[in-house]
Amino acid sequence: MAMNTHDIASLFCERIDWQRPELAQTAFAEAYRLGDVEAASLGFIRYLRERETPRLGYTKTYVWQLRASVSRDQLHEAGERWETAQARDLLMPYHGNAFGALGAETIFMAATPERCEKLRKRVIEYRERWSEGFFGVVESIMEVIRALFPLEECADADLLPIFCWLFAKLDVEWPGARRWSETTLGTSGHNWWAHTFPGFWMYGFFFPEFKGAA
What we know:
single chain
């Protein structure tokens, strides 16, 4: 059965640590207490996007400057790359995803409200496969979130299923990766660390408001 907006909002809200003092008196926390998970989830996303710290690495000013500095051909090429990613398997390439592989600058140049909405729908279509993929997918999802966060073209609702995908993949990657021995660093397994642990670090540093993230 296809997920609806309420289902996604419920999954999202379940991961928030509502006991944190900075959240207790917010309007979105009150909405959650009243059972309005859609208002609560969107309000929380807005809270994350408007706070000063921690910053996710990109600002609106940077995006504007980038767009002003590139040619029309570069913008067109970025749009074509986005459309190619939209059409391919979301879980490819290995250790990543189709949109994470684009890189932030391509996303900045190509993003439109329509494309961000299509990305949201694409992620929802993959609901049954959110837990699939190799180690390192968490990091690639985090890169997509970081790129989308400063974009006015990306609605708050567009981010919700991407976060839910992140949660599902975290639940698979973290329990195994946390048991890796340091001896792994002396083998070919060091690449696993390079693909995987930066994603965990970013999640914990950028989003301590989620349960267990910090």
